[in-house]
Amino acid sequence: MKASNVIHPKPKTTSTSNKSLKPDHSAKSNERRREIVQAAYQTLAEKGFEGLRMREIAKRAGIDHSTLHYYFSGKEALIDGVVDHIVQDLAIGRPATQNVEVGPREQLAGHFNALIRQMEQTPEMFVVLVELHSRAMREPALRAIFAKNDRAWKGFLVETMEAGIQKDEFQATLVPEVAADVIISLVRGLSITFAGRAASMQRPLEQLLHWIEGEGSRSAAQRARR
User: Fold this and answer.
1) pLDDT per residue over 66-114, tens digit each?
2) Contact 187/115 with Cβ under 8 angstroms?
């Protein structure tokens, strides 16, 4: 929900100004939003898109219907919040390894491993993603939500591809934007093909990494690691 542009005058009081209360209020609002998103997420995992009813979400979150609409104007806004929640948990668009300098190849390999771990630990997350993606084929509003979140993921992958080419860890003929699209499409396809068998994604993703490296660049990377 967008904040109002109206500027309210500050109260001319002393120590009990509303300013000191804002952080607590904001924290409570954020927590309430998380509870609603979690309720919608669990409902999608259990019942699918058709089972997503705003009144049921409100009941599951322990609030009334009007309070739910205060935080989310409708189903589309709520789904946007669910997708954001999933993307943050998957750490899409973020380096797989933090506080450590790693090369592009290791960063991409770490990203693949993190996705596999996430699928093993929270398989329902991928059930929700597949459910929403299939629905998005018929609904432009849902496609727009995924397109927005995909930009961050693709940006991370393109940046990694470009760095890998510069450092001779990936083959020079690679087109970063195309390679990023291939990775995103393959990961989504594998999450369906190997639903419930996340470990089986390991070999296809390793093969993809070898293709991205190419023979010459892979040999150079191996020599550099010795």
Assistant:
1) 899 899 988 888 988 888 887 776 654 454 444 457 899 999 999 999 8
2) yes
C-alpha dist (Å) from residue 137 to 59, 130, 190? 29, 11, 18
- Which domain-ending residue is among 73, 108, 134? 73
Domain with 37, as residue range(s), is 22-73
Beta-carbon count within 10 A of 63 CB: 17
pTM assigned to the model = 0.69
Residue 8 falls inside a structural domain:
no
Q: Tens digits of per-residue pLDDT, 121-143? A: 888 888 888 888 888 888 888 88
Are residue 106 and residue 187 in the same domain, yes or no? yes
* CATH value at residue 156: 1.10.357.10
CB 126 within 8 A of CB 191: yes
Distance separating alpha carbons of residues 84 and 148, to the nearest angstrom? 10
Question: Do residue 103 and residue 65 come from a single domain?
Answer: no
Give 197-221 pLDDT, tens digit per residue. 889 999 999 999 999 998 655 444 4
pLDDT greater than 90 at residue 4: no
Q: How far is CA 6 from the centre of its chain?
A: 33
Which pLDDT score is estimated for 10?
A: 39
* Domain end residue (candidates: 53, 73, 93): 73
CA distance linking residue 39 with residue 37, whole number of Å: 5
